[in-house]
Structure formats: structure tokens, C-alpha cells
Write a structure and sequence with these properties.
With about 290 residues, the protein is mainly alpha-helical. The chain contains nine helices and six strands, in the order H-H-H-E-E-H-H-E-E-H-H-E-E-H-H. It has a two-stranded antiparallel sheet with strand order 1-2. Strands 3-4 form a two-stranded antiparallel sheet. Strands 5-6 form a two-stranded antiparallel ribbon.
Amino acid sequence: MMRGSNTVIGAVNFVTFLISIPILAGGIWLSARANSTDCLRFLQWPLIIIAVSIMVISLMGFAGACYRLAWLLQLYLFAMFFVVAALLGFIIFAFAVTDRGQGQVVMNRAFLEYQLSDYSGWLKDRVSDPGYWAKISSCLRDGHACSKMPRYTRDPITGVLVPESPDMFYRRNLSPIESGCCKPPTSCGYTYVNETFWIAGAGMTVNDMDCTRWSNDQQSLCLQCDSCKAGVLAGIKHSWRKVSVINIVMLILLVIIYVVGCAAFRNAKRMHNGEPFGENRMTKSRPSRMHF
């Protein structure tokens, strides 16, 4: 029976090791987006650290089960409890900092537009910090965040490739960063020339500071606009919500596996102390008999 309990603990740790792989993959995916798309490089590291910790702890529990080292199994259960608590806290934190803010619908536009005033909290303050935003905007520029904006169609008369028409552009589904960083806000009243080149119209709005921050310089565009900061926040929210769904499923599985591991360890300890599994410790001195 002792061997059977150790087998259960070993199987539990093997499954736990497998669970850590999607969590690590989610952290690596966020890291890849941080280097090329979202440009926010600190939120993915706690997730990667938690995933690696789960891997190491599960290997430790597997070794304890194979070599029947009770002290190592106790250390495994103790460490796994804190890792599960850390993952739960991280999920709550991720939802809390990405809870507020969403895109705004604009008339006759398929894409959404984003305003920094719709967001609040720690993450907004972090992104809005001038020193930190300088790093983010540099990352967006170096990563050519707006390079996929231009599209061309062939002129039916001349056969020459020309930029798509305004109506075609307005029907596109732009990403939050493309909408906030690669074009001026619709409310500014700029006239479309191509996706990243606009000219000031007669009815240009000057109440919004982003209207004066827009530049047709392809290295500047609207990278210093508040709408760009809002677009980055929206992109982070979208990415984190995807990863959080996976994390919640993995957390539920980890809790179930942890409970099973605790039960198996308790049973193994009972067998080691010579207490038969399933036998009651208290028995009646004179059990009654039923006569028919």
C-alpha cells in the first residue's frame, strides 16, 4: 500500500510538471509580444518564474516519491502551497490592473478608438510615466508597429498600385496599437491620404492635444499621443485576458492535484505508522448483534 501511495504521488507530480508547460508557454508568448507588439516587458516575468518554480517543485516531489523520502515530500507540499497561492494572487493582480478601459465606437468606422482618460490605476500610471513611455515608444518604433498599415489596390484604369480608398480603410479592423499610434484620432478632422499620411482639414479640432501631436514623419506618427498610450493599454489587456483564461484552468487543476497529493501523502504516512487504511480507530467493545 505504501508503494501504491508513492505511485500516486509520482503520477500527481508528473501531471503537475505537464501543467507548468502551458503556463510557461503563456509567459514566453507574452515575452515575445513585449519585444515586438505590446512593448511592456515586466508583466510576463512573474508568470515565467511561477511556471519554472512549478517544474522544479514537481521534479522534487517526483524524486521524493521514487526514493520514498518523506522529508522531501513534505517540502514539496509546503512549497507547492505557496506557488499555488502565488499563481492565484498573480491572476487576481492581472485582472485588477487590466480591468478598466475599453475601445470607443466611432460612427462610420469599423475600428475602435482609444482614449487614455478611459483608463485608470497602477498600469495607466506606469505606462504614462515619461521615462517609461520613452522606452515603450522606442520599442514601438524599432519594432515597426505601423509597418502593416499600408495596403494597396490596383487602379482598374491604369493598372498601377495605389493606396486603398478612405472607405476601404474605414472598414478595416485595426489593432489597438494601429488605431492609437499609427493614425490621428478621428475627432481631429484630418483628411485621409493614405494609412499613415493625413493632412489637416478645415474643421480640425484643437481641443484634443493629440491633434497637434500627430506628425506625418513616419518615425513619429502618433507615438507621443495619449491615444497611443491607451492603445498600448488596450493591447496589454487583450493579451493578458487570453493568458489569464489558461492560467485559471491550470490553477483549478493544480488545486485538485494538490489536494490529491496531500491525501496520498497522508495515506502513505498512515501506512508507514502501521495504521491499516480504511480501519476505524475506535471500535465498540461489545458490538451489538441483530437477531431476526
